Amino acid sequence: MKKGRFSEAQIVAILQQQASGQTVAQIVREHGLSEATFYAWKSKYAGASVAELARLKHLEEENRKLKQMFADLSLENQAIKEILRKK
């Protein structure tokens, strides 16, 4: 997956500029974005803080690890059942 130019913390800071009174056109021009990108970020990160995003990233990583553990155990379980069925 392509890594963007902006971190999530930077994106939140850019979105907060609109809340402080700058227009979307000014923000887009200043950061070299398209309006579509700005509004996509706004729909994805609306109202989120940097701390919430860090917590979400941590939870997603933990979830990924748990899914991997489940897949490994499920594969082992299936192999054991296959061996027992053959005996």
Automatic annotation (TrEMBL):
The protein's name in its UniProt record: Transposase
InterPro entries according to UniProt: Homeodomain-like_sf (IPR009057), Transposase_8 (IPR002514), Transposase_8_domain (IPR052546)
Coiled coil: 49-76
Keywords: Coiled coil
Matches recorded under Pfam families: HTH_Tnp_1
Coiled coil keyword on record: yes
Originating species: Hymenobacter cavernae
Cited SUPFAM superfamilies: Homeodomain-like
PANTHER family: LOW CALCIUM RESPONSE LOCUS PROTEIN S
